[in-house]
């Protein structure tokens, strides 16, 4: 880590991408904040040059979690550092059983917006991840996690049903409707893990705010998402694991395996159809369960591969994502969280994989 302190003045020059259509030649950092006015102490400023973006957003990851469940603080720190080195300076933690509040006291680690712990049915999700409850407890647990989180609650919308041998919805419509209403009453938004088709209509009509993965979107539900403004976070680099998951479970659950392969095969078409319909699409990696942290650039590239224009894919991890999460980008007075590149990321999003400088809370980190 650099020993530059937040009180040091930085002069960031080159092409500052303030917004999709707004580019400036410079900005300043003073007392850890962005300013476009020359500050006191500017004569001794450290100069940074290049193409500048707001700190990237990973809107679906899991700090404090691996494939076994909660991890210790040292592992959580390594996860957060991997995200930071990749330029992901704002993370929406989409469910974790670990207490990571201590990260909020570390100015050298990314900022985290937490969704509390996953909420699922007994034996209907990955072991050690979720509160496993019955539908009559859902409202109470949603209220609990709404109070513990940072404005989000995470439901498990569907998972494999061993008796059926395929993905099925977890919650009755009445239970999820009451739970989402309670979260909204408490000022929290609700998102849900959903791979398949069956749970989507009930969740959207019940008022859900976002759906993770959303591989089950069809021509019947895409218009409903668009009409209600329900966002999706496709996590395409996680969906890429579906064929190997299917191969591993095919002997026991052939129907489920076939379903997972079909969802995988149409993944890019599904995301492009959602985007074309006007559904808000944001970048998330699903890091922390099985996938490594620090893969945000790979997910942006996958959105472009799916057919989303490069500028909109960039917005899905920068200006648009920060606005959706209620956090500033490169506005006057905003915390100085930014990433600097040697080339224009608008011309080729693969540039995101190689940040030249990372500035967090006004400090040059890398």
Write the layout of secondary structure elements.
Blueprint: E1 10-19, E2 22-30, E3 33-35, E4 46-54, E5 56-61, E6 65-66, E7 69-70, H1 73-85, E8 88-93, E9 111-114, E10 119-120, E11 131-132, H2 138-148, E12 152-156, E13 158-161, E14 166-169, H3 173-185, E15 189-194, H4 200-205, E16 210-213, H5 222-228, E17 231-233, H6 236-239, H7 242-249, H8 254-265, H9 267-276, H10 296-305, H11 310-315, H12 319-325, E18 338-341, E19 357-360, E20 363-364
Parallel strand pairs: 1-4, 5-8, 8-9, 10-11, 12-15, 15-16, 16-17
Antiparallel strand pairs: 1-2, 2-3, 4-18, 6-7, 13-14, 18-19, 19-20
Helix pairs in contact: 2-3, 7-8
Describe the 3D structure.
The protein has 366 residues and is an alpha/beta fold. Helices cover 29% and strands 25% of the residues. The chain has 12 helices and 20 strands. A 7-stranded mixed sheet has the order 3-2-1-4-18-19-20, with no helix packed on it. Strands 12-15-16-17 form a 4-stranded parallel sheet. Strand 19 (357-360) and strand 20 form a beta hairpin. Helix 2 (138-148) runs parallel beside helix 3. The longest helix is centred in the first third of the chain and has 13 residues, at 73-85. It starts with 9 loop residues before the first strand and ends with a strand. Residues 1-5 have low confidence and may be disordered.
């Amino acid at each position: 880590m650099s020993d530059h302190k937040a009180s040091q003045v930085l002069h960031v020059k080159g092409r500052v991408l303030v917004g999709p259509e707004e580019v400036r030649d410079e900005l300043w950092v003073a007392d850890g904040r962005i300013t476009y006015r020359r500050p006191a102490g500017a004569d001794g400023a450290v100069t940074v040059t290049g193409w500048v973006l707001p700190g990237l957003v990973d809107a679906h990851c899991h700090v404090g979690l691996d494939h076994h469940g909660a991890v210790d603080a040292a592992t959580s720190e390594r996860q957060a550092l991997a995200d930071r080195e990749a330029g992901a300076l704002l993370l929406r933690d989409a469910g974790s059983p670990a207490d990571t509040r201590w990260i909020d006291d570390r100015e050298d680690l990314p900022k985290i917006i937490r969704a509390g712990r996953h909420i699922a049915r007994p034996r209907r999700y990955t072991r050690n991840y979720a509160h496993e409850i019955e539908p009559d407890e859902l409202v109470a647990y949603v209220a609990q996690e709404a109070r513990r989180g940072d404005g989000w609650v995470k439901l498990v919308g569907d998972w494999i049903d061993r008796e059926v041998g395929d993905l099925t919805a977890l919650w009755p419509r009445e239970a999820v409707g009451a739970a989402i209403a309670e979260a909204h009453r408490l000022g929290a938004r609700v998102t849900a893990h959903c791979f398949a088709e069956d749970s989507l209509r009930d969740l959207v009509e019940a008022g859900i705010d976002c759906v993770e993965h959303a591989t089950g979107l069809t021509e019947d539900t895409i218009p409903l998402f668009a009409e209600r403004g329900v966002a999706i976070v496709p996590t395409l680099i996680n969906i890429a694991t579906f064929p190997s998951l299917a191969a591993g479970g095919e002997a026991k659950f052939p129907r489920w395996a076939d379903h997972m392969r079909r969802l995988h095969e149409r993944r890019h078409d599904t995301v492009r159809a959602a985007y074309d319909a006007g559904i808000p699409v944001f970048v998330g990696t699903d890091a922390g369960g099985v996938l490594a942290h620090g893969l945000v650039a790979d997910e942006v590239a996958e959105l472009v591969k799916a057919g989303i224009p490069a500028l909109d894919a960039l917005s899905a991890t920068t200006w648009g994502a920060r606005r959706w999460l209620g956090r500033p980008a490169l506005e006057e007075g905003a915390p100085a969280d930014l990433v600097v590149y040697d080339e224009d990321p608008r011309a080729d999003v693969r540039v995101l994989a190689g940040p030249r400088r990372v500035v967090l809370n006004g400090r040059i980190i890398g």
